[in-house]
Each structure stands twice: as structure tokens, then as C-alpha cells.
Amino acid sequence: MMIADGHAPNPAPQTQRLVLIVDDSRAQRRTLAVQMTRAGYQVAEAANSREAMRLCLERRPDIVISDWMIPGHSGLEFCRRFRAMQSDRYGYFILLTSRNDKKDIAEGLRAGADEFLTKPVSGAELLARLAASERILRMEEKLRSANTRLTAALTKLRETQTAIERDLREAQRLQQGLVRECHGSFGDFDLSLLMRPAGHVGGDLVGFFPINAGRVGLFALDVAGHGVASALLCARLAALLSGTNHQNVAIRASDSGGCDPKPPVEVMRLLNSLMLDELRIESYFTMIYADLNLWTGHLRLVQAGHPHPMVQRADGRIESIGQGGLPIGVFSQADYEELQVTLAPGDRLFIYSDGLTECENARGDPLGEEGLHAILRTNATLHGDALLESICWSAAHYSSGQRSDDISAVLVERRSEGASCS
Do 234 and 287 form a contact (C-beta atoms < 8 A)? Predict the structure, then answer.
């Protein structure tokens, strides 16, 4: 093989790259080797494909310049094998040939060659192609380095995510512990609670607490937003509403040394003041708080932005009560209106969060209050946990199992005359 005279600018590789020259002619290899050495490359030589493959495995050349015809295998087959052994880095392959048929060029490209040079090759053309190979190799190295950094970052991210998941599972367990009792029986009344966070932790909270022998307080609240911040506020509110009588903001000491309920309106005002004046956080919550008289079935109730409670009478009639009201933690001068309702034997009160009525079907239609009315009528014979589970199942069926918000509920049932506590 002849190299025509000529000079070209040195491609000046950033690192001294290794070029493997594969040709059965020692004179031709030496001619190319001199050109490569002058250009600043390291050079290795092989006279056949077997020796070339050994050098590729041992020294991993950056650039291969191979004749089309070499002993052992053709240059095309050698190119295919060279490509097959590359996994973590790229090698540039230049195929030298005296052929100039377009079909031959296409065959060489399919075999994995990057460049074709027709013999005799001028030194200027060869060095110009090597300069082009430098750009490709530098780009590949930058991408490989970026991928290495990205892989390390993803590994770190997965480790962090695993730790977060572990912490969230523990937070979920702790949040579930905020609801110490999911059921309670007081005189003729049965109370049942439901909490279904959309994620690990949620912003809904429900609960009840005895005030004295004849009164029970019950509440449902929904902190705006989701996740850890909402769950932390829930934890703070749980401590205020379900602690001992001396800690519970809804209870005051009576003159006789016992405990009396604070009026629901006073409880709401106190919580609103706490949010705005003491906590001072960028959040708010909706809430319903009720004081239940166990002897008369009379409920004093305040609605603060929470969905309208539903009363289902013993004959199946359903009433939505309340005027809405303002959420807690928004306006310093917010006023709250007390509602009063009496549960007769066989009646029940259902308090729920908007995660239930905002469940959407495939068309994007929310379940709404009418849908919830229909579910309550359909399940009129169920009570306690069975009713709450059936409501959740019906909502999940309506939304095809898709849910983006927490669901919580308080169910207060007054047993019928002669019915026993189950």
C-alpha cells in the first residue's frame, strides 16, 4: 500500500491515544506507523486478525486502521468482532480499501466502520480523518463521564428514596396511632372512625373523646395539602383535641371539680387564633366539631369549611346540614355558627372529608353529595365498620380505584329501641 506525499495539521489529541494498524504488509504498517507517531499517537501493529483481536483485548485501542483484506478474517469480519467486544467505551474504526464501489462502502458501514479511505491515502487526508475521530471520541468520553456521574447520582437518589420510604412508613404507623380508638360505645350511641390516606401519610384526622358521663366530643378535620407538612399539623391538632382533660382545648373544668364541654363555637375560635397567632404557618384546615349529649341525642355542631354532614333518619331520609363556614387559619375575625341537631333512635350522623365526594369516574364527573346519598340509601341496613367499608368500596368502584386525596369519616349511630350494643 502506498501513502501519497502530503502534510496535514497535527490533530493534537488531548491524551495520547493508541492506534492499532492491521495489515499483512510490514512495509505498509511501518509507513502508517510513522505518520501516526509524528501526529502524537501511540501505535500498535498486527499482521492478521488473530493478532489484532489479541491486541484489542489486551490494550483496547482507541482507533483501529485496518486493511479490507487481512489474513484470518476479512477486515469486515474483524470490524464486526471489534464492535462486539466493546461494552463500556467506543473505538473508532477506519477501513482502508482499494475498492470504491458504493455497495462495498455500504457493507463496510453495516459492519461497523466509521470511516472509509481509498488507497493510496494521502497523509493529509488520513490525519484529517483522525482529527474527525478525535471529535467523536472526545464527545463519547464526555457522555460516558456524564453517564457515570448520572449513575452515581441515581444510586445516591435511590438510597435517599429508600430512607425516605422507610421514614414515611414509620410516620404512617405513628399517624395511625393518633387515632387511638376507631370504635366507641357510649350509652345508646356507637361511634366509628375511618382514615384512608392517599399516600403514606395524610392531612385528615378524625377522633372522639369522652368529656364526662353524659357528653362526648367528636371531630373531623382536613389540613390543606398532602404529605409530611400536613401530617405534622395533624399531629399537633391531635394533641390539642385528644389529650387528657387538662390538655384538651375542648374541655374546661367544672365548678364541681369535674369536666364540662366548651361550646363548639368557642373551640373553633380558639383553634383559629392558635393557627394565626401562635403557629403562624402557611396552611389552614377545614373542620367539624360536635358535642354529643348522650342522654338526649342532642348535638351542638360547628362546620368550618368542611363538607356538609349528613343525617340519615331511621326511615331512610337523608338531610345535609350546615351552611359551610370559613376554614380555620385563614381570617383572624372569622365567625362560626353553631348548628343543632337531634338524633332519635335509629338515626345516624355521617361526617366525611371531601376526598370522598371528589372521587371522579372515567368521564371526570365527581361522586358528589347526590352520589353519596345514593350509597347511604343502598347500604341503609349496614352499620359501623361494615357501612364505612362499603362506602369506601363504592367510591373506589365509581373512580376505578383512582384516588388522589385522603378519605376520612366519623359515623355516629343511635341504636334503635331495644337494640343491643354489638
Answer: no
Q: Contact, 337 vs 300, CB < 8 A?
A: no
Q: What are phi and psi of 82, to 5 degrees?
A: -60, -45
pTM of the model: 0.64
Q: What is the DSSP string of 303-328?
A: EEBSPPPEEE-TTS-EEE-----PPB
Q: The domain 3-146 belongs to what CATH superfamily? A: Response regulator (3.40.50.2300)
Residue the block writes with cell 387528657: 244
Domain with CATH 3.40.50.2300 in the chain: 3-146
Superfamily assignment of 177-414 in CATH? PPM-type phosphatase domain (3.60.40.10)
From first to last of its 422 residues, the chain has per-residue pLDDT tens of: 444 444 444 544 456 889 999 988 888 888 888 888 888 899 999 998 889 899 988 899 999 998 888 887 788 888 888 888 877 788 899 888 876 677 877 888 888 888 888 777 777 888 888 888 888 888 888 888 888 899 888 888 888 777 766 665 665 566 565 566 678 999 999 999 998 877 656 678 899 999 999 999 999 999 887 667 777 888 888 888 876 667 899 998 887 778 889 999 999 999 999 888 877 777 889 999 999 999 999 999 999 999 999 999 999 999 999 888 999 999 888 889 999 999 999 999 999 999 999 999 999 999 999 999 999 999 999 999 999 999 999 999 999 988 778 889 999 999 987 665 54
Tell me the C-alpha distance between 337 and 304, whole Å: 9
